[in-house]
Write a structure and sequence with these properties.
123 residues, alpha/beta, four-stranded mixed β-sheet, 3 helices, elongated
């Protein structure tokens, strides 16, 4: 069985803190976690059990893009259709974990460049 996942490839930048800062305020964080993520990439890794999984997406030509492709390859997800976009950043999710909940800001980056051409090439 072959599965193709079309979706986002992000690097998650997570900060843990006791509380969120108010506007204009600085608070000290407790921990920083930088990890591969993105809804599409996460699904590709989860779907790989018992199937050949191909990720279809775009990354930037930066260190975060290399983190994504390395992670997918380590998880035995095929990256033939993960396209690198020169001069574009890899998508990121900036996550704050505080007060028992999270807040997330997503920067699309190269994810915004996934379109019919990339899907056709994978097809």
């Amino acid at each position: 069985m072959h599965i193709a996942v079309i979706g986002s490839c992000n690097v998650d930048i997570t900060v843990e803190a006791q509380r969120r800062p108010h506007a204009g305020e600085t608070v000290m964080g407790d921990r920083l976690i930088v990890s591969p993520g993105g809804k599409g990439a996460n699904q590709a890794v989860a779907a790989r059990l018992g199937a050949e999984v191909y990720m279809v997406g775009c990354i930037g030509d930066d260190d975060y893009g290399r983190i994504i492709t390395d992670s997918l390859k380590e998880s035995h997800v095929h990256t033939d259709y993960v396209f690198t976009r020169k001069g574009t950043t890899t998508g990121t999710a900036h996550i704050t974990l505080a007060e028992g909940d999270n807040s997330i800001i997503v920067i699309k980056g190269a994810n915004a460049e996934v379109g019919p051409e990339e899907v056709d090439r994978a097809w």
